[in-house]
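Q: Hi! Curious about what Response regulatory domain-containing protein looks like structurally. Here's the sequence.
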Amino acid sequence: MDKKISTALVVDDNTVNQRIHRKLLDNLGIQSETVANGKEAVDVHISGKNFDLILMDLEMPIMNGIEATRKLREMGIRSMIAGVSTRSLEEEKQEFMKAGLDDFQEKPLTVAKLVSILHKLNRK
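A: Let's find out. The predicted structure is below.
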């Protein structure tokens, strides 16, 4: 890969999904942190942290993935943001993409889907 992806933020309110996503990232040598909702994702960036990749769930309490993605882009965050969701109604997916996603994958996330996300990041 051209760009070295070394850090990721997993944004998901489901602890099982958090563990699965972190394990997949770990298997690819990518260090990750987790937060439970979009507001926490925004707050982590306000505190000065940056990540190469953000895996953003759509439906979360407090601040959903669409709102969080929009807010991060307004803040000038240039990390690749990949939306991941079990629900993929076309209207929701389009709204999520318009908020500033670089990619969208349906859950469950697999190594193949994660590698696809990373290849898209390398082409950016």
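A: A fun detail: The domain at 7-123 is CATH 3.40.50.2300 (Rossmann fold).
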